[in-house]
Amino acid sequence: MPLCFAPADAQALPLTLLEKEALGAWLEGPGAAHRAWVEAAGFRAGLGEVLPLPGEGGLAGALGGYGDAAARARERFPLAAVAQALPPGDWRIAEGLPEDAAEREALGWLLSGYAFSRYRKASERPERRLVAPPGVDPDRVEMLAEAEALTRDLVNTPAADLGPGALEAAAAALAVRFGASIEVTRGEDLLAENLPLVHAVGRAAAEAPRLIDIRHGDVGPRLTLVGKGVCFDTGGLDLKPAQAMGLMKKDMGGAANVLGLAQIIMAEDWPVRLRVLIPAVENAVSAGAFRPGDILASRKGLTVEVNNTDAEGRLVLADALALACEEGPEMLVSMATLTGAARVAVGPDIAPFFTDDGALAQALSEAGGRWADPVWRLPFHAPYEAMIEPGIADLDNAPQGGFAGAITAALFLRRFAEGAGAYAHFDIYSWQPQAAPGRAKGGLMQGVRALRGALPGSLGL
């Protein structure tokens, strides 16, 4: 299905959404004419149930089960469960859609049409288009769906076709589309430009490492987004086992998400000086690979002892964060598929984030709830600072013991984020393990809608 609404004047069939507890009253009132049909079909208004309604000339409409509050709480996009079960055609919501959920549910409907078909012939999927419900801004919701499709496509593309060069090309295409500038520092030039950690992590790969730098807007507060662009992560010389390497095409999920957020910001023309920094590398194995025990210099001047080459994401982010802070942005956000510890803590559905700004944290939580983008604040727990200080160097990239892995990684990054007015770090998964309504199995946008809702207020826009 296309990620767009049906025209407002489309000859759309009516869809009546019914909560379980409202079914009886509907059958006594407006639905009395269909009572026998509904009872014979065994329709109970369970979430995702669909019952086509017959008319004189064929299909007259449909009932969609909206379940009960408990069932809706288990789904991010309850309406999408109905959408995917409807007969093909154009539909409009006749009744039953809560006004305060209309935009979120309309977005879920559009996202239920997403499919990644780059590597196979696109099947003839039946279209189920929705007329934008009253009060819903169709342009805004379509824009959000398009940005998520960009993120999902990037994450779903395997590393053979999305190495550092292809990620650069995707960033350049986005920049050109919105009239943004882009500069890229590659290979040995990273050393000349004092980006040694980005160079160290990516130097063993067939494709040169690079730092992608996009700018858009010349007025307003400075907003800088930093995304981890590790296009494939073998683990380096601390080689991952095969099972752990299977999903490493998604290790550039942080970059994909900040590009999706940047697309939203530029499409909505926020009055900000936007900057997007993406260290794009592949963590590979060759004679030039960095080694366990190496001590690396960073742009900030802090030295880092490498106790695990598989903790490379924080290294490339460190240089990018230090670069970002040199111009003192009012807001700095990093996004990365950084630690397995974050997944153990909150699972794949929730995007944990870290910030010292209480107002920003509250705004993120509220916006995530409004836009079906669950986030959860984890602490920058100061007593754990000692865990990232090895003694032989300023910092340790992989503290021993395994405790508090997401927190120690965030504390490591915060050392390089000094100088920003506010800083938030998201440790995302960017992957949907099993298909769910509105969320196809595969790449996923996480934390972006929460940021879109929270950042304008935090920046005083």
TrEMBL record:
UniProtKB keywords: Aminopeptidase, Hydrolase, Manganese, Protease
Domain of life: Bacteria
Domain Cytosol aminopeptidase: 308-315
One GO CC term on file: cytoplasm
Gene Ontology MF terms in the entry: manganese ion binding; metalloaminopeptidase activity
Family, similarity comment: Belongs to the peptidase M17 family.
Protein name: Leucyl aminopeptidase family protein
Organism expressing this protein natively: Rhodosalinus halophilus
